[in-house]
Amino acid sequence: MSQAAPPNTPRPDGKPARPSFLRRFVVKAAILAVGAGLCGLVALALALALAWPSLPDLHAMTDYRPRVPLRVYTADKVLIGEFGEEHRNVLRFDEIPEVMRHAVLAAEDDHFYQHGGVDWSGVVRAMLANVVRGSKSQGASTITMQVARNFYLSSEKTYSRKFYELLLTFKIESTLTKDQILELYMNQIYLGHRAYGFAAAARTYLGKELAQVTPAEAALLAGIPKAPSRYNPITNLPRAQIRQHYVLGRMRALGWLDEAGYQAAMAQPLAVRSGPESSGGNAFRVHGEYPAELVRQAMYGIFGDQTYSRGINVYTTIDAKDQEAAYKSVRAGVLDYTRRAAYPGPEDNIDLPDDIEKDPQALDDLLDGLQEKYPDSDDLYAGVVLEASPTAIKVARGGHEIITVDDKKALSVVARALGPKAKDDVRIQRGSVVYVHKNGDAWEVINMPALQAALISMAPEDGAIRAMIGGFDFNRGNFNRAVQAWRQPGSNIKPFIYSAALQRGLTPATQISDEPFSLTAEQTGSKAWNPKNDGNAYEPMLTLRQALYKSKNMVSIRILQAITPAYGQDFLTRFGFDKARWPAVLPIALGAGSATPLQVVNAYSVWANGGYRVTPYLIDKVTDSDGKVLMQAQPQKAGDESLRAVDPRVAWVMDDMLKGVATYGTAARAHQVLKRGDVGGKTGTTNDSVDVWFSGYTPALATTVWMGFDQPRSLGSNEFGAGLTLSAWLQYMQAALKGVPEAKPRPQPQGLLVDNGEYYLSEFPPGQAVASLDLPTEDPLGDFLNRGSTGGLPMLNPPPPPPAPQPGSPSGALPAPPPGVQSLPIPVPQAGDAIRQRPLATPAAAPAQAAPAGQQVPAQQPFFPPIPVPRVDAGPGGEPVAMATH
Q1: Are 389 and 418 spatial neighbours (Cβ–Cβ below 8 Å)?
Q2: I want to staple 482 with a disulfide (CB 3.0 to 4.6 A). Which of 77, 291, 454, 631 is the partner?
Q3: 344-348, 457-461, 797-801, 822-826: which range is least confident on average?
Q4: Which residues contact 226 (CB under 8 A, 6 or more apart)?
Q5: Which positions make up the signal peptide (predicted)?
Q6: Where does the chain hold its CATH 1.10.3810.10 domain(s)?
Q7: pLDDT exceeds cutoff 90 at 599
Q8: Does position 652 have pLDDT exceeding 50, yes or no?
Q9: Mean pLDDT, residues 428-446
Q10: Euclidean distance between CA atoms 141 and 137, whole angstroms
Q11: Helix (H, G, I), strand (E, B), or coil: what is residue 390?
């Protein structure tokens, strides 16, 4: 019997035997690999078993029915918002021309009819390209994957979302035919300028039906899905043509165009519409995003999910011309401030491959990736710096679009970022991501503004809102500062404190001390208070009128001390201010409470209309898809005595004084620029210039502008309401008042006396009205609020007028609505009212019960259910702080 050979016994060929441990290692490794593979398969099977049943039903695809969207119009019937299946004109597969189908397949997925939903060869090509270029420059999404994503999934880039996308892709492929999938894609895909589907895109960009497009035009449209914001032929035709040429080349390579057809398509001039205003209602020529979103919220509160499908048309009170003027004035004001402020540095810095500018396609791919993180903002365009020096900056917007910034004035704005001693986080260099903007004839580099702004304008006679801007860019966050931001108004509040004084016996001629004022910690009960005038400038005595013109803080404090803070607090509520946000303390004389721009402009409209407080409203009427009126606003109107907020004589005198402010005082530039005698207004700047305001009016239009940072901080020591916000207000009002004749002065009310050129209420004639007011700080006050104390001066106390009506109170006999029309007051939300925040998709909570088609909405149904509104308060913790205003 033979024995086993000992280890390492030489083999017959004379070579040493392979060690047995190596065999064991290989066997174990193989077993481990097989085990890991089996575990992976089990895990994958388990994941599939769990995930597949949770995939959405494909009913939305198999029974695809176009919905008629909610459309929002201005008063002059200009479309400013469309919510739902936007700009969609659904075509059957056989209605889509073959040249358009070929163009799309050439651009997006030329193996569409060969693969089973995932193009694995394309995945390998994309991976290799990305490895070679060192960045994620190519993707491998098929048309089916894009359909899955567009119908059911979010765009977040997570592995779980990608996994569900693959599973849903396979489910779609197993359920629908290829022609059905392509039909869905071509009707669903977003193509810029709010056009969904190629039929809508053909009308938007070319002004023709899809059946009429040529190969050149089909290739142009097919190039848009890659990056709608960058390949948009209206805003970026050169870039769109580059993509078009690529698509035409693919069509030729795939045999869908012969050489003659290719050359003819390459040579065909493109008749692209000049702008969204020409697109036959398929794009918005007016920036009305903020009012349109308020309307959407209101309609969803009534109709629920049917809001986006039943063809509701809403006609607002917005004036298209005024709205666009408001948008431009706010943008100009914010950009002007941004230029003056210290340049904070580029948005980002990336590693820019050497000589990438010599490869236009690679540069385009890189910029496409940046666009998602740094999107354009209207006329602010994101780009990457190729070269930077103190004399010129070269910025790439595309492989064939290089912008050179060499204007000396423009370069001075970013000079601190171009010098050799520039800090690393501020320096502009190759690879810096910046925004460029065409300012006049010259390009400039400018950072995306951090400053925010709001403008709201209304008709004082009935409260109709004519323009509303709630921020610099709606697409960068739709928080509406015009109606949601609580800020300190500063000196914008002084006219209301002064009017309370007139009601209590002071007159425009009353002499008041402007000497420094202070209270000790013992007097305040907390800490000492030492308010100051702007510039620390003081005068011995001023008349009440002079003090308003000069916006003197010490005078305002003494006025409130005389009439008592409690009376001032109550008086503010007559104009719509929230009593809880205006505590009965002396600092409210300087605006140390909080209000929204909507509240402020509504209050100023009282001076413009003779003393009436009307309720602002945004929606005039609502109709169904057939034009039947479902709701009609019945606005309150000035002249209805139930709406009176203040004695008509006080309103007349305050109007006279505010016109003086706009002619001789801190707002004198208003009269100089507008050259009208019917303009009144008041500046407002809070302590350290945290908030700046201007509120002004004519009898035809009241407008408030606010600017500040969302997280309150100083705008800088040189920023005032008389500069920044007044400039924006003037730019807007110049456009809005164009063609509006100057109003004749209102007749002087009865019971108003005139003596020595100044006005007196008849119950406080000369000799009985308060002639002078000086409350020295050494007077014992009793307490900080000085309740009931007049500092030793006689104070006349006439019976208080009737309380001001509450918002929404009956406004007298209004015209009856037409038979069958629901009569509803349709306001915009007041500050603090709840605003329904709902996405266009199915809401998380159960929606409000929708009104069945053909039925009217119950009058008692609220427009804004109780969901808290985000607030932005000035001052740490929201407490009142001393304001040095001007």
Answers
A1: yes
A2: 454
A3: 797-801
A4: 107, 243, 368
A5: none
A6: 88-267
A7: yes
A8: yes
A9: 94
A10: 13
A11: coil
Q: Are 791 and 778 contacting, i.e. CB atoms less than 8 angstroms apart? A: no
Reported CATH class of domain 454-618+636-788: alpha beta
Q: Catalytic residue among 141, 377, 491, 594, which?
A: 491
Mapping DSSP onto H, E and C, the string for 154-198 reads CCCCCHHHHHHHHHHHHHHHHHCCHHHHHHHHHHHCECCCCCECH
The DSSP secondary-structure symbol of 243 reads H
Token pair recorded at residue 370: 């940046």
Please tell me the distance from the alpha carbon of residue 585 to that of residue 787, in angstroms, as a whole number: 10
307 or 207, greater pLDDT: 307
CB 309 within 8 A of CB 68: yes
Among residues 152, 212, 222, 238, the alpha carbon closest in space to that of 182 is found at 222
Q: CA 372, CA 418: separation in Å to the nearest integer?
A: 27
> What are the start and end residues of each CATH 2.40.50.140 domain in the chain?
346-446
DSSP string covering 567-628:
HHHHHHHTTT--GGGS-SSGGGGGT-S-B-HHHHHHHHHHHHTTSB-PPPB-EEEEE-TT--
How many other β-carbons are positioned within 10 Å of the β-carbon of residue 753? 16
Q: How far is the C-alpha of 766 from the C-alpha of 753, rounded, in Å?
A: 9
Question: How much is the average pLDDT of 82-94?
Answer: 72
Q: What is the DSSP letter of 724?
A: I
Nearest Cα neighbor of 454 from 593, 323, 597 is: 597
Enter the pTM of the model.
0.70
Mean pLDDT of the chain: 80
Q: How many CB atoms lie within 10 A of CB 28?
A: 10
Q: What span, in angstroms and rounded, lies between the C-alpha atoms of 865 and 35? A: 58
Q: Two tokens at 452?
A: 């925010």
Q: Which of 190-194, 253-257, 281-285, 879-883 has the lowest mean pLDDT?
A: 879-883
The first and second tokens of residue 720, run together, are 């005032």
Q: What angle do CA 581, 582, 585 make, to 5 degrees?
A: 140
The answer to whether the CB of 863 falls within 8 A of the CB of 827 is: yes
Helices (H), 176-315: 178-188, 198-201, 215-222, 237-253, 259-267, 289-303
Domain limits, CATH 3.40.710.10, in the chain: 454-618+636-788
Question: Per-residue pLDDT for 676 more than 60?
Answer: yes
Which member of 82, 85, 86, 108 is catalytic?
Answer: 108
Mean of pLDDT values over 582-606: 96
For residues 194 and 468, the model is more confident at 468
Rama region for 788: left / alpha / beta (φ>0; ψ in -120 to 50; rest): left
DSSP string, 666-700: TTTHHHHHH--SS-EEEEEE-GGGSEEEEEEEETT
pLDDT in tens, 298-323: 999 999 988 888 889 999 999 999 99
- Write the pLDDT tens digit of every residue in 253-278: 999 999 999 999 999 998 887 543 33
CA distance 574 to 803: 7
Q: Where are the beta strands (DSSP E) in 690-826?
A: 691-698, 701-708, 752-755, 758-761, 772-773, 822-823
Cβ neighbours for 669, distance < 8 A, ≥ 6 positions apart:
722, 726, 730
In the CATH scheme, what is the homologous superfamily, with its name and number, of domain 88-267? Biosynthetic peptidoglycan transglycosylase-like (1.10.3810.10)
Q: What are the Cα distances from residue 96, in Å, to 208, 215, 271? A: 14, 13, 21
**Interval 216-255: pLDDT, tens:** 999 999 999 888 877 888 878 888 999 999 999 999 999 9
List, in order, residues 6 or more apart from 94 with CB less than 8 Å away.
Answer: none
Report domain 346-446's class. Answer: mainly beta
108 annotated active-site = yes
| DSSP code, position 310 | B
User: Which residues on adjacent β-strands are paired with residue 790?
Assistant: none
Q: What are phi and psi of 868, to 5 degrees?
A: -60, 145
Q: Is the dihedral of CA 575, 578, 584, 589 positive or negative?
A: negative
- Average pLDDT rounded to a whole number, residues 532-544: 90
